[in-house]
Amino acid sequence: MNIRFIGSENGLITFKKLLNGKANVSNGADAKDALIFEISSLEVLYKIPKRNFGVPVFFYITTPNKSVISNIKEYRISGILFPPLNAETIMSKLIRSQTQDAAVNERDYETLRIKIIAKAENIPTLPTIAQELIKLTRNASQAAIGQVTSKIKMDQGITSKVIKLVNSPFYGVRKEIASIDRATMLLGFSSVKNIALAISLDQYYQKPFNMYKTTGQAMWQHAYNVALISSEIGKYLQQDCDALYMAGLMHDIGKVVMADFLVKEVEDVQDEREQLGCSHAEIAAVIMNKWSVAPAVVDAVKTHHDTRPELYGRIVAAANHIDHDTDNADEYIYQLGSEYPIQDIDMLKDSIQTILSDNTDGS
Ligand SMILES: [Fe+2]
Ligand SMILES: [Fe+2]
C-alpha cells in the first residue's frame, strides 16, 4: 500500500517508522492508495479543498484547537488519526477504508456528477450570433444567410477577428481580405460562418485551465485546429464538413465546466473519471444539447474518447490526436485511411500540415 503524507517532516518520519514493512509512506505525488493530511492548525485545514480526492483521505490532527474538529465534518474523509499513533489502528482503518471506499466513491461520484451536470446545464447561453450560426443548415435560404452576414458585420469585435483568421495561410488567399463581403465571396459563406462561430465560443475559454496544464487561449486554439482538421478530413471522406467542424470546435467544451471541479492535475479522461466520476466528453454532450446542437454533432463529441466510435467521433478523435501530437500527424491520417477510404491522402496530409503550421492567434 502506498500512502502519501502531506505535512511536517517529523510527521512523515513518524508514519514511515510506524508503518515500516506494512505500507510505504512518502510525500511523493505517486503514492495513490491513501492520503494523510497533517492538520497542525485551523489555517492548514482551511487550505485543504473540500473535495473528493479519489482515494481514502485521513486527517492526522496535531493541534489542540477545538475549531478544527467542529469544521472537519465539511470534508470528505475516511477517518481521523490522533497522536499517539498506533500501527495496528492505522492499518485497520486504512484497510477498512479501502474496502468501503468503492461504495462511498459511488455515492460521492453521483453527488458530484449531479453538481457538474447542473453547472453544465447552467452554462451561459450562447451569444445570439452563435445561436443563429448553429441554426443555419447547409441549405439555408439566401435571406437567412444575408441576415446572419449583416449581424456579423455589425459586430466590430467579431468582424476584425474573422478578417484576421481568413487571412491565415490555410485559406490561401493571395491578396489580403479586408471585409466580410470579400471573405464570403472568395471563401464562401460556410467558411466565414465557421470562423465566426469559433470566435463566438472564445468567451467560454477566458478562465484558468491549470488542472489541464494549459491556458484558455491554448484550449481555444486547440478547439479551432481540431475543427479545421475534422472538417478537412470530412472533405476527403465526402462527409458533412460543417457538422464535423462544429464537432471539432466543441469537442472539449466539457472541460470548461470540469475545470471548476478538478482538484488535481489530469492527464486523460481516465484521470477525470477517477476524480469526478465523469468525463469532459459526457459533459460536453450536456452543454451541446442545451445549445440545441444537431444530434450527430453531439454524438461525435460524446464519443471522441471511446475505443470504437462511429465515423464522426472517429474523425474528431483523429483530429484531436493530430493536433496534440503534430510530429506523428501523418501516422494518424494513414491509420484513418486504413479504416475508411480517404481519397487523395497526400493532399489531405498537406492541408493538415498547413493548418498545423498556421497556429493563428485568434484572440
Ligand atoms: Fe477531448
Ligand atoms: Fe482535445
Word description of this protein:
With about 375 residues, the chain is an alpha/beta fold. The chain has 2 domains: about 1-120, Response regulator (Rossmann fold); about 130-360, Hypothetical protein af1432 (Orthogonal Bundle), CATH 1.10.3210.10. The protein is built from 18 helices and 5 strands. It has helices at about 10-20, 40-45, 65-70, 85-120, 130-135, 140-155, 155-165, 180-185, 190-200, 215-235, 240-250, 255-260, 270-275, 280-290, 295-300, 310-325, 330-340, 345-360; strands at about 1-5, 25, 35-40, 55-60, 80. Strands 2-1-3-4-5 form a 5-stranded parallel sheet. Helix 17 (about 330-340) runs antiparallel to helix 18 (about 345-360). The protein is elongated and about 80 Å long. The site of one fe (ii) ion has 6 residues, from loops. One fe (ii) ion binds near residues 251, 252, 280, 305 and 320. InterPro entries: HD/PDEase_dom, HD_domain, HDIG_dom, HDOD, RNase_Y/CdgJ. It holds the Pfam family HDOD.
State the distance separating the first and last CA atoms: 47 Å
> Unreliable stretches, pLDDT < 50, 5 or more residues?
none
What is the fourth-level CATH superfamily of the largest domain?
Hypothetical protein af1432
N-to-C SSE series?
Answer: EHEEHEHEHHHHHHHHHHHHHHH
What structural category characterises the helix and strand content? alpha/beta
Average pLDDT across residues?
90
Compact description:
Pfam families: HDOD. This is Ribonuclease Y. The chain has helices spanning 9-18, 42-46, 66-72, 87-121, 128-135, 142-154, 156-166, 180-187, 189-200, 216-236, 241-250, 254-258, 269-276, 280-290, 295-302, 311-324, 329-339, 345-358, and strands at residues 2-6, 24-26, 34-39, 57-61, 79-81.
